[in-house]
Amino acid sequence: MKKVLAVISVLLVFSLVLVTGCSSQKTDSEKKVGPKVMKLGIVTNKDRSLTQGLVKFGEIVEKESGGSIKVEVFSDGVLGGDRQVIEALQMGTVHGTAVSTGVVAAFVPRMDAFDLPFLFKDKATAYKVFDGPLGQEVLKDLPKAGLIGFAYWENGFRHLTNNKREIKTADEIKGLKIRTLESKVHIETWKTMGANPTPIAYTQLYSAMEQGVVDGQENPLGNVVGMKFNEVQKYLTTTGHIYNANVFLISKKFFDSLSDKEKEIVTKAAQEAKDYQRKLNDKEDNDSIAILKEKGMKIAELNPGEKEKLQQILQPVYKQVGAAIGGDFVDKLLAATK
After folding, report:
1. Could you tell me which residue, 67 or 5, shows the higher pLDDT?
2. Per residue in 220-229, is it b (16+ CB within 10 Å) or e — as a string?
3. Mean pLDDT along residues 5-30
4. Beta partners for 247?
5. Pairwise pLDDT comparison (114 vs 7), residue with the higher score
6. Would strands 36-41 and 177-180 be described as parallel, antiparallel, or unpaired?
7. In degrees to the nearest 10, what's the CA dihedral of 278, 279, 282, 287?
8. 156-182: per-residue pLDDT in tens?
9. 34: pLDDT confidence band, cut at 50, 70 and 90?
10. Residues 6+ apart with CB under 8 A from 11
């Protein structure tokens, strides 16, 4: 009898082990996989329209995905400068950004054409080109660089500021040491106008002007206000020399990891956020001049005929870009802007 009871006890223990093991296996299999975390990095501050566009994108994606994608936005260059962030997208360590076409051109050369000086007469023309066949065609160059481009957001028309003198003529630009983007087109543009272009990371620009490393810089109005450049710059001239779109990019590695449904959500959200961001940027443009005047900055326009003079001076830049990326594309672009 004792032997029988012992056998029964062993069997009971064995059964309990099996049940416990099966139970734990079932619990492990039922554990929910956490959301995919999408890290977005940008150099602009948290209040700038481009940063707010990323925030809006994140809100849409999180809502539409039911939380399967969680979006984190890092502003103020926390994840690095423009080029560093793009390289991080290629590696898949950062997953998205909105960055100037002039910077993206280092990875996709045809982007250079979009930064030709005085190419776009107004925002409506720029939207027509970027949202149309030519703009969409160039986005198709991005995957081979490990990037996916979804839409062109807006940085805006770039204007000149400096700490030396009021600029109203083409000749008065000569000799100024101007910070530019790390862009061949931007550097050549300022060289051709007689200035001394100096590429400096956006995150280091304020201190560079404060220390006198450069005399001035050129940026859209929203950046001038957002970064408080008026504190270290006396003069602003509304040159509008380059219209600057920002490409909304996502890491190809990250995008490829998404389900078809998630890809659809991300694609749609990028377009919705584009419309939202462009409206915000338009408001920034409209408000900025008054804000800068109130803060004591001296605002000037180019004298009559000077913009046309600069356009003629800058024709060699068009020839250089055409030779580098193909004159046919530049010709198509010029036709599309008319």
Report:
1. 67
2. bbbbbbbbeb
3. 41
4. 99, 152
5. 114
6. unpaired
7. -140
8. 999 999 999 999 999 999 999 999 998
9. confident
10. none
Q: Is the pLDDT of residue 18 over 80?
A: no
Helix axes 327-336, 315-325, angle to 10 degrees: 130
Amino acid at 149: G
- Report CA 8 to chain centroid distance, whole Å: 71
Residue 14 has pLDDT above 80, yes or no: no
The three-state secondary structure class of 249 is: strand
Q: Is the dihedral of CA 90, 42, 279, 304 positive or negative?
A: negative
Buried b (16+ CB within 10 A) or exposed e, 119-141: bbeebeebbebbeeebbeebbeb
pLDDT in tens, 227-276: 999 999 999 999 999 999 999 999 999 999 999 999 999 999 999 999 99
Dist CA 44 CA 81 (whole Å)? 10
Residue carrying the six token digits 């807006």: 154
Contacts for 289-298 with beta carbons within 8 Å, 24 or more apart? Answer: 289/221, 289/238, 291/225, 292/221, 292/224, 292/225, 292/230, 292/236, 295/230, 296/230, 297/161, 297/230, 297/233, 297/234, 297/235, 297/236, 298/166, 298/234, 298/235, 298/236
Specify the DSSP class assigned to residue 220.
E
Distant-in-sequence, close-in-space partners of 173: CB < 8 Å, separation ≥ 6: 160, 167, 193, 194, 195
pTM: 0.88
The CATH fold assigned to 36-336 is D-Maltodextrin-Binding Protein; domain 2 (3.40.190)
